[in-house]
Write a structure and sequence with these properties.
46% helix, 3 domains, AAA+ ATPase domain-containing protein, 18 helices, five-stranded parallel beta sheet, 413 residues, Helicase, Ruva Protein, domain 3, nSTAND1, alpha/beta, Rossmann fold, 12 strands, Arc Repressor Mutant, subunit A, P-loop_NTPase, AAA+_ATPase
């Protein structure tokens, strides 16, 4: 077999190159040497977290690089400036306030498994025995269970703050949007304020998907002075180019300018897609022994990138087309919508894009009907109407996926 059994020879070549440590579409960047772009945002985070009493909240859309920025900054600070531990907690829907700080509390010497002790007292013979110790020869007429509750209270922000106020380090709370209870979010905000009041060296970096910072703090009014909100928007084209050019340089690959421009265009500010496409390009080039990333390699890489894209995007796209008559026409329409300059667009703007970019003319009423069809369905639809006459993609990353999946079709409508 040319590439070994099950492609193992190719895998060995790719692993040896180290390219999967440079282009990381499925995991956050946490190595300083692999972090490109976002210099202004990084400098701001460094300044804030080094300021006494200041903590950080990073929020924005999915896929804009929030976790990569936060992890890189935390690692850099602890290795080069501060001393202390980095505690990482990735939240899920089962998390509560008390479950977020188990590791920091353990580092501070608090064993939460010893919250209470139960003792059984023998009123007949006066003997006492701990639960779990069996004594067959002990006669007991009446037993009373005494519960000794300690002062440990991990559900209290003030108690947690007192235990952690002298601990040196950073706690990165990622995917904070997964915490569903508003009360638990308020407790996190209260802890931020208390640590700030103590001027604690223990800092919180909270990261989550949100349109406003208040969504992650339940609108707690007392944290504004000590919790600096950093809204992470999509990356600039220049920053995306830094990811592409520096990444390929590290594995001794040369990329054509047209390929760079195409990857930047498809990515639309989302570094996730930049990493994904570049990884597939690099893998194809390394396997073929070609040190130049050409447009032909990019075409193959885009097909692989679509296969390797997030399942939610693929399912939404595929289920939408299955339910439609003449799906090819809708593919072209969606691709044109992906190139509209603003998130919310009207049918008139889409007609202009179809004509200018693809030389396709569509009757306005027919176009409106087709757009409306894309907002109907029992499941989550690919488009929705934020206002009368306006349309918007349900997932803001969908335009980038469409540019990968639909870019090579024959444009007829």
């Amino acid at each position: 077999m040319a590439n070994g059994f099950f492609g193992l020879d190719d895998e060995v070549l790719i692993i040896k190159s180290g390219v999967r440590e440079i282009f990381t579409p499925h995991t956050p960047v946490d190595e300083i040497s692999h972090f490109f772009g976002r210099e202004d945002e990084a400098a701001r985070l460094v300044s804030v977290i080094n300021s006494p009493g200041q903590h950080i909240l990073v929020y924005g859309d999915r896929g804009v690089g929030k976790t990569s920025l936060a992890k890189t900054i935390c690692n850099m600070l602890l290795h080069k400036i501060q001393k202390g531990h980095l505690f990482e907690k990735r939240c899920d829907s089962s998390d509560t306030f008390s479950s977020l700080f188990l590791e920091p509390l353990a580092e501070a010497g608090i064993d939460l498994s010893l919250q209470e002790q139960v003792v059984t007292q023998n009123s007949g013979g006066g003997a006492k025995l701990s639960v779990g110790i069996a004594r067959a020869d002990l006669s007991t007429k009446c037993e009373t269970k005494l519960k000794s509750v300690s002062t440990i209270n991990p559900d209290s922000p003030s108690w947690v703050a007192r235990q952690l106020k002298n601990l040196k380090g950073i706690c990165l709370i990622d995917e904070a949007d997964a915490i569903v209870c508003e009360i638990e979010k308020k407790k996190i905000a209260e802890l931020v304020k208390l640590l700030s009041d103590y001027n604690s060296p223990f800092k919180l970096v909270i990261v989550g998907i949100a349109k406003t910072g208040e969504e992650l703090t339940a609108g707690h009014p007392s944290v504004e002075r000590c919790l600096k909100e950093v809204q992470l928007s999509r990356m600039s084209d220049d920053d995306l180019k830094k990811i592409i050019l520096n990444g390929f340089k590290k594995v001794n690959l040369v990329v054509e300018e047209e390929v760079v421009e195409k990857v930047v265009d498809i990515s639309a500010g989302y570094p996730h897609f930049t990493h994904l496409i570049c990884l597939k390009c690099a893998e194809k080039a390394l396997i073929s022994g070609n040190r130049h990333i050409t447009q032909s390699i990019l075409s193959i890489a885009l097909e692989e990138a679509v296969k390797d894209s997030e399942g939610a995007l693929k399912r939404m796209y595929e289920s939408t087309l299955r339910a439609l008559h003449k799906p090819l026409e809708y593919k072209v329409l969606l691709l044109a919508a992906a190139y509209c300059k603003v998130p919310e667009f009207r049918s008139s703007e889409l007609r202009t894009t179809l004509s200018a970019k693809f030389s396709v003319n569509v009757d306005s009423q027919a176009l409106s009907r087709r757009l409306t069809n894309l907002t109907k369905g029992d499941e989550v639809t690919i488009l929705y109407k934020p206002a009368r006459g306006c349309f918007q993609f349900t997932d803001p990353r969908m335009p980038s996926f469409l540019k990968m999946a639909v870019s090579q079709i024959k444009l007829e409508i």
